[in-house]
Backbone:
């Protein structure tokens, strides 16, 4: 089997960009994810990881583990800008690029060898291109499918380059923890470990039927993945699945007016992004996190897709109230719209003048495009605006 | 409690009240049926899920009076399977068990203490009037499909009952379409009374009103409505809140009026919807001279076109609407002809029965994508 699938994963991307832009930070523990104690770590540089800091860890804990760390709030626009340039490099080799996230992609190199040499040569060149242009390191994995390629990129991180060849699959996979398999989360791992199955090698002793009984459909998938079989294709079109915003508050809040102001602010952002992308969504979701980090998400489907601020805002309020999510102080609030489709024919309403509402929304969008996001604001957000 | 009762009668009664039994409830007793044996009257059955309740009397030979509550599902399952013969029914209060014996079958079923069962609320300070039950069912059928399923707007999930001098009407809308059914009624009202009946109540009434009913009594106050018909007492909570101003959106002036055969129209729309549903379910109606064209185009799959003969008065018109909204009403109405009234491509399309004048159905059009 050809080694045509490549996984490119930038090393500690946000932290590395910060170190690139500010050379004084090089070699120091840089932690991106907010300067207050409230947020979570989005990326820690490898220097910081030595202290046990990792992503998704509360900032407060990271500060405890690495008190001399350099904590930065994060500059997402800058990261997106660098990301776009890195993807531009990837596209020089193949159009079949699946963007997994801002700093991670799969490439299908089938048919590229005549142009650029074999996939190992292409991998070396991509690594070199990224390093020469930005001084950033990427870890690259090469294999015959996505699952193995992703495993490979993780094998020698950071600055790794690892190839899993057909003949080595069993030798490499078998000693690995079952948690390394794509799609095996905490719960599945627990189920497997409770049966004494801790490695992929052990997993392979189970028959397909046994796995199906234990884990259902997912079990069947694991049967194949544990043997290095994965038929997923590199998907070029990775359309947006949802648009959402969330805010972590400076302190846990229970003031209804503050919560609603924040909700409205985010509903405006979400609806604006939907309109910019020419999309409507049929599912509206809210997310709440309390002081103890318990997190709830609740969603509702609507029959006619929307990208209107007020509909998103009203449904979000309904979700918060119906599920009694506001009965204790909250740490984080989020609102999102999913189940997206392109703006199509529009069902008009008997009681609301949607034509007028839509015109209003578009006009406000235009004003904000021209004069900035705070040029037109809702009365509910006035206080919030003044205090900034 | 000790009585004998016919299996068929008992099962029939349980089936009627069972519709108001709570399916999920934090109060287990609400999953039960309240039984009350009264000498010379028979056995009273009550179910009450706190949103609605049903009371029904079954004839029975009462040997000893008493009250008890049995789990509805289990009781109903047992009664269904028992032979069509006389049942001996006894309650042993000391251990909360009912003995149900019938021919060679012996069941004991554990129950609940009956005094904890919530009785049906009194409908006090109520407005009372009588109306033909079958006509009411017809009105329910004509509007209930237009209710909304959007739980974020509770008032739209129900039907608005409007009583005004000499008139009764029922309205339902999901804001994209609206159904309005109106009948004459003898009442001595001097003002308008409006309440919102829950969608489930409309469905259950529609189901419970049989074909042979004549008169129904309706009692109304701000919180509850009570229907009494054919020995069934049906009580429902009302939905609180503001129903949209339906009168304001019913058009009075039209540019075009079309008469069309209902079944022919329905069949044509059904066929076109085979293509429409592959995409956004939108069909285009065009009326011109003596013909209506119904069409739909899906860029991915293909297109469909149907032609139906019409009688047109007024201008040529073209309008895009959701096929389901149209099929719903054409399936429900029974008149041979319907009257379609149009104003323009962005105004509501109105459908009426022809020649009767007791029904209005509005569909808001779809504006083609930008």
Residues:
């Amino acid at each position: 089997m050809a080694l045509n699938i490549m996984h490119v994963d930038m090393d500690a991307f946000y932290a590395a960009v910060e170190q690139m832009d500010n050379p004084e930070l090089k070699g120091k523990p840089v932690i991106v994810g907010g300067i207050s104690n409230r947020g979570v770590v989005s990326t820690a540089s490898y220097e910081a990881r030595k202290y046990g800091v990792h992503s998704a860890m509360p900032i407060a804990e990271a500060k405890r583990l690495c008190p001399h760390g350099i904590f930065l709030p994060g500059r997402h626009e800058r990261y997106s800008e660098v990301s776009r340039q890195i993807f531009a490099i990837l596209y020089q080799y193949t159009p079949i690029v699946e963007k997994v996230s801002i700093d991670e992609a799969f490439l299908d190199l089938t048919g590229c060898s005549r142009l650029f040499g074999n996939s190992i040569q292409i991998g070396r060149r991509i690594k070199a291109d990224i390093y020469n242009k930005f001084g950033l390191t990427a870890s690259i994995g090469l294999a015959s499918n996505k699952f193995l390629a992703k495993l490979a990129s993780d094998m020698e991180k950071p600055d790794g380059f690892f190839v899993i060849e057909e003949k080595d699959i069993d030798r490499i996979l078998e000693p690995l923890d079952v948690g390394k398999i794509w799609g095996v989360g905490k719960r599945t791992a627990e189920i497997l470990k409770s049966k004494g199955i801790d490695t992929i090698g052990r997993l392979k002793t189970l028959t397909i039927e046994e796995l199906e009984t234990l884990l259902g459909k997912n079990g069947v998938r694991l049967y194949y993945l544990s043997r290095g079989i994965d038929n997923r294709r590199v998907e070029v079109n990775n359309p947006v699945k949802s648009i959402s915003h969330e805010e972590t508050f400076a302190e846990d809040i229970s003031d209804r007016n503050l919560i609603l102001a924040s909700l409205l602010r985010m509903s405006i952002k979400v609806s604006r992004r939907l309109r910019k992308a020419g999309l409507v969504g049929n599912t509206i979701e809210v997310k709440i996190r309390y002081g103890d980090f318990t997190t709830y998400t609740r969603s509702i489907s609507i029959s006619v897709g929307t990208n209107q601020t007020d509909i998103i805002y009203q449904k979000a309020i309904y979700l918060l109230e119906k599920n009694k999510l506001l009965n204790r102080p909250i740490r984080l609030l989020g609102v999102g719209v999913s189940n997206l489709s392109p703006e199509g024919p529009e069902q008009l309403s008997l009681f609301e003048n949607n034509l007028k509402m839509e015109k209003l929304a578009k006009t406000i969008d235009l004003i904000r495009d021209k004069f900035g996001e705070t040029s037109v604001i809702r009365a509910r957000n006035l206080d919030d605006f003044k205090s900034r | 409690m000790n009585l004998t009762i016919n299996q068929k009668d008992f099962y029939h009664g349980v089936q009627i009240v069972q519709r108001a039994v709570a399916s999920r409830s934090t109060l287990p007793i609400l999953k039960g049926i309240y039984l009350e044996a009264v000498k010379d009257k028979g056995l009273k059955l009550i179910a009450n899920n706190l949103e609605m309740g049903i009371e029904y009397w079954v004839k029975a030979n009462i040997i000893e009076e008493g009250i008890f509550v049995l789990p509805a599902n289990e009781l109903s399952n047992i009664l269904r399977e028992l032979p069509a013969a006389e049942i001996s029914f006894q309650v042993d209060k000391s251990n909360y068990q009912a003995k149900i014996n019938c021919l060679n079958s012996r069941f004991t079923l554990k129950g609940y203490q009956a005094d904890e069962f919530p009785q049906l609320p009194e409908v006090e300070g109520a407005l009372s009037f009588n109306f033909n039950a079958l006509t009411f069912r017809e009105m329910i059928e004509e509007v209930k499909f237009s209710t909304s399923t959007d739980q974020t707007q509770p008032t739209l999930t129900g039907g608005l009952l409007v009583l005004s001098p000499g008139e009764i009407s029922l309205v339902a809308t999901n804001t994209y379409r609206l159904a309005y059914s109106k009948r004459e009624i003898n009442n001595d009202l001097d003002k308008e009374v409006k309440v919102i009946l829950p969608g489930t109540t409309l469905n259950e009434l529609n189901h419970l009103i049989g074909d042979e009913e004549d008169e129904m009594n309706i009692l109304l106050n701000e919180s509850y409505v009570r229907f009494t018909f054919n020995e069934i007492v049906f009580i429902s909570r009302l939905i609180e809140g503001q129903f949209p101003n339906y009168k304001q959106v019913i058009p009075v002036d039209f540019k075009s009026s079309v008469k069309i055969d209902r079944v022919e129209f329905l069949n044509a729309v059904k066929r076109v919807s085979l293509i429409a549903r592959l995409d956004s379910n939108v069909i285009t109606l065009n009326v011109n001279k003596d013909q209506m064209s119904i069409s739909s185009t899906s860029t991915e799959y293909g297109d469909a076109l149907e032609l139906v003969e019409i009688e047109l008065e007024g201008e040529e018109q073209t309008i895009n609407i959701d096929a389901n909204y149209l099929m719903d009403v054409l399936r429900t109405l029974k008149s041979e002809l319907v009257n379609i009234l149009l104003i323009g491509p962005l105004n509501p399309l109105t459908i009426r029965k022809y020649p009767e004048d007791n029904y209005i159905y509005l569909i808001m059009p779809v504006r083609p994508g930008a």
